[in-house]
Amino acid sequence: MRKRIRDIRHDELVEATIQAIHKTGYAGITLAMIGDEVGASAASINYYFGSKEKLMGATMQRLLALLHAAHLERLATAEGPRARLDALVAANFDDRLFTPAQCSVWVQFWAAAPYAPDLARLQRINRARVRSHARACLVPLVPQPEEARRALQAYMDGVWVAAAQGGAPGAAEARAKATSFTARLLGD
Amino acid sequence: MRKRIRDIRHDELVEATIQAIHKTGYAGITLAMIGDEVGASAASINYYFGSKEKLMGATMQRLLALLHAAHLERLATAEGPRARLDALVAANFDDRLFTPAQCSVWVQFWAAAPYAPDLARLQRINRARVRSHARACLVPLVPQPEEARRALQAYMDGVWVAAAQGGAPGAAEARAKATSFTARLLGD
DNA sequence: GCAAAATTTGAATGGTCATTCAACTTTTTT
DNA sequence: AAAAAAGTTGAATGACCATTCAAATTTTGC
Question: Percent of chain A scored above 90 by pLDDT?
Fold first, then answer.
């Protein structure tokens, strides 16, 4: 029980950051706005995270952890490279990830990452992980796995961008579309 | 000749804005930094554009105008829906558009647009234009044009995101990849 | 060449914001 | 229940920034 309150606040504030960025945008967000989301003060946020920059890092880490968890869950029941590829794609559009707020925040982080070392580092790690999984799945499936991987990743990123723009299709529909896209990409 | 200096400065400052955003990011940019790019003062920028917000609007408009011009040029020699579709796709990766700095700025504007009415308006107009062109080309080509259009647009957006991340493939290569992607999407 | 219009900027102005800190309250430990 | 530790915040602090403005310089129209 030693760390209960600390952990609760930590989670609350990361969630508040996602909602606040979704509402106001990364460029215009302030600690006061984030605090208002859960009735905390700006000073309190600094007490827990040390700086705004570290809070953003923790928030991005949370999104990546969700993606990773969704991927592992789906991998558990996937047999063969084709099923593992579908697991990777479907994880990207998992119900817990593919929400309007989180799509929005994800795109904001993509835009901000090149200028924030903490975010850039996390992004690099994630991209490398996804790339290597996709490659491993695709090598035994298609003659030009690298080209297919790039196209697939571009498609998935593009769907996130579209979702952040407004017309959100819903996670289940996004998964279905992505699956049929993958099938077409692999040559039916 | 009445408007020469005004027009020159206007163009210089919009170009400076692209470079400055590429270097520092939309979230951290200041008028002073943009001015430094061409040896102008922050006050001077306000004299020409009235506000930072309007400068950003003019900058986005410049990117959209480039896209539009590239599209029209390529349309001029395109006969039939299939050629017009390739023109639309290739225009997206035109040499004058698909540079590291402009990819970077484009993604930043995607992220910022939902929170800046001026940018949102321009974005909406552009997306509607591209959507309608793509639809018109695809209807006679595939049984499910709407699905193909969404996939194609997601792919193109995703390539821009990837380019903004760092690994830039170069415009010519991007066009070649996009063309072969389109071919595969339409069923070889 | 000269007056008027356009351009340019240094120096205010007013506002915002992250961060710090001292004081206060709540929770935990013993 | 007292002391210690953890949590909380209002009010500084210091920095930064868009915007304004008056004064200076340059360009243009004649």
Answer: 93
